[in-house]
């Protein structure tokens, strides 16, 4: 009788324990070392549900957005919820995530916090996963969706070196009401949920949305300025404060709406720090801007820094492919053309020029087609890790990319003289960790033109050789599927396959960073020398180079 009483008492307390539930806290480790400054995962579980959350979420200290997960028993419906901000939360339900897992059960055992655990194995996205679970807690749960039906998962190990392990287990006196799913929760499909969650983790700064860049004045917009017969569009945009350590990207999507050719493109901002700006030239005529004269008889408008003028600051140099989207009907066997081209570049080093400011952002694609191209442009700002350094200071020095090509701005042909491009500028303060952010592309689209002939770029600083290299791209064939209208030659190559002077149709040309070191306040001179090729008839070569000084 006494034995029966003890058995019934034990059964009663285990049932009560299961109903009230347990709380399990987990720690993350890497190569057997506990990771510092982590927010421990918390798992609440009883016979009716499992809730996966964290210590900071439960204490109200978690930064939004944050996620928590609920598994309802016995249906195993898997609820995911994100608190996007104080006013918005979204959720989704996956009825199959828990039930459809492919797990291999082994006979291996080990003790975790005094409980006998069994090992199960699986693979997720080519990662080997070991799941250690116990059946002695009388409830099901774990720190992720994996193994929820096996028992209670006390450890998950990925690839043998990254683990999340139970560090303590508590019996609950009461189930926290804060764990109940909100009645007002808005449910969306899983793909929408993932998209909204992803976008909530960074700041998007939209600039252009499906805007046309074409040789036509037909397009009109109240908020967008258009210049050079519609080949340049400009918009004033408020950029939020960018903190040290944050990462900034510029992202452009482009498709042809009628132009079949590879064209030079540029995303830029117009500095407003001096008496004159590039916007003055756009609005009043390029000849109102300072000239650069290298003695070849031409006047190059607005390309160098002067005492009262700053040239445009280039964020990204890109090149359109041959007719992506519009000319996708030009079928070739075995080739499925892209419907657009995405250009994306990290420009964090330029954050100091745009942080917490209203800036004029421009986009240029040189073309003579009335339908031209369609673009969408945005900046994205992402949380970073290193806040130890302040944002870089910037000084735009030169930019020979003639974004006002269709508005009368000269091509960058000043390298046909030995002097090339020489700029004397004044630094107002002593500077450390000075770099020149340099972008260069060669142009001249015939056999002997500089587009197809490697040319050495030599940079001199205060008349001393600083850096020399030959910019060249020989990977252009990798982007064939973005070039449906590219011409095909008798030798089996396509025009878009050909190597070029630092660019390929359908790609970004990335900057190089040239170390200068420390500089004293005062005047300095930078000179760029390129052995520009000779003209042939009406064909000529030119170079688009931009240079920005970065320093602390």
Automatic annotation (TrEMBL):
- UniProt lineage: Bacteria, Pseudomonadati, Bacteroidota, Sphingobacteriia, Sphingobacteriales
Keywords associated with the record:
Disulfide bond
Domain Peptide-N-glycosidase F N-terminal residue range list: 204-381
Organism of derivation: Sphingobacterium anhuiense
The signal peptide stretch is none
- Write the protein's name: GLPGLI family protein
Task: Give the InterPro entries listed for this entry.
Answer: Cu2_ascorb_mOase-like_C, GLPGLI, PHM/PNGase_F_dom_sf, PngaseF_C, PngaseF_N, PngaseF_N_sf
The record's listing under Pfam families reads: N-glycanase_C, N-glycanase_N, PNGase_F-II_N
